[in-house]
Design goal:
Elements lengths: L8 E6 L1 H4 L8 H17 L2 E6 L2 H8 L9 H24 L5 E6 L1 H4 L2 H16 L3 E6 L6 H6 L2 H10 L4 E6 L20 E2 L4 H5 L12 H12 L5 E5 L5 H6 L6 E3 L5
Parallel strand pairs: 1-2, 1-5, 2-4, 3-4, 5-7, 6-8
Antiparallel strand pairs: 7-8
């Protein structure tokens, strides 16, 4: 998918449903495997940016709450606790492979302010030059837009856009985009390639899952942002992070959204 000699900068977005168990507690084995794969990709020569949801889910577990808070202030508090724990886990697991991680918390507002966006781009580029792996999350403790609606999907597309990335991979809890709801229709078929995001594609986008706030509606919006910026997108199941290797080899994994030619 990314040819030899080309710049190889990829953004990987991981959702709450991939980072937590059905119990709501942290899926430590999944995070460890993801850290292993992304570290190996860095060794192979890729520049990797990770956009990670999961702070609310991890914070809910850390606070020993029976379920995710229903109030906005409860969600923000859980995010504040969970972000600390999440970065601790990432730092610990990536350090096993000699990879230095960095934390970038910001809101979507910064991406629409030219001065702030310029500072962000400079920071990303410098971190990558230092051979760091930037880990991005929406600053949920002060911003509620992504917290309530987006689950970082569109944020990851914006990050891919401003960093001039070559590929966006969205890890989720399904195998990709189906032509109908696979939980309701056993005959639903996986759509392997989307040549154009049109009203038909938007219409079949699914609703939110149990443990995240996004869903296929926001993933399609994110894919549209990226492909319109010339960046192809893959939506795939995050249960096997090693499948990212297959994506980069050009093998059919998940749903591939073709970039719009400029």
């Amino acid at each position: 998918m990314l040819g030899k000699g080309e710049k190889k900068r990829i953004v990987v977005k991981v959702g709450t449903s991939t980072l937590t168990h059905e119990t709501g507690k942290t899926n430590i084995a999944r995070i460890a495997k993801l850290a292993s794969v992304l570290s190996d990709l860095k060794n192979e020569g890729y520049e990797v940016i990770l956009v990670s949801s999961g702070a609310i889910g991890v914070g809910t577990g850390k606070l020993r709450l029976s379920e995710k808070p229903e109030t906005t202030k409860g969600l923000q508090a859980a995010a504040a606790v969970g972000q600390c724990e999440l970065m601790f886990l990432y730092d610990k697991m990536f350090s096993e492979y000699g990879v230095v991680v960095s934390q970038l918390l910001f809101t979507s507002d910064e991406l629409y302010n030219e001065e702030s966006k310029g500072h962000l781009v400079d920071t990303f580029n410098q971190l990558l030059e230092y051979d760091c792996l930037p880990i991005v999350n929406e600053n949920d403790s002060i911003s509620v837009e992504e917290l309530l609606n987006g689950d970082n999907d569109c944020l990851s597309a914006r990050v891919a856009e401003i960093t001039g990335s070559d590929l966006l991979i969205l890890l989720t809890d399904t195998n990709g985009l189906y032509d109908s709801d696979p939980s309701a229709n056993p005959s639903a078929k996986l759509i392997e390639t989307v040549d154009e995001i049109n009203d038909d594609i938007r219409a079949i986008a699914g609703s939110a899952g149990k443990r995240g706030t996004g869903g296929f509606t926001t993933k399609i919006k994110a894919a549209e942002i990226a492909v319109n910026s010339g960046i192809p997108v893959v939506i795939m199941n995050g249960s096997k992070p090693t499948d990212i290797y297959k994506v980069l080899e050009g093998r059919p994994i998940g749903t591939y959204f073709k970039a719009v030619k400029k």
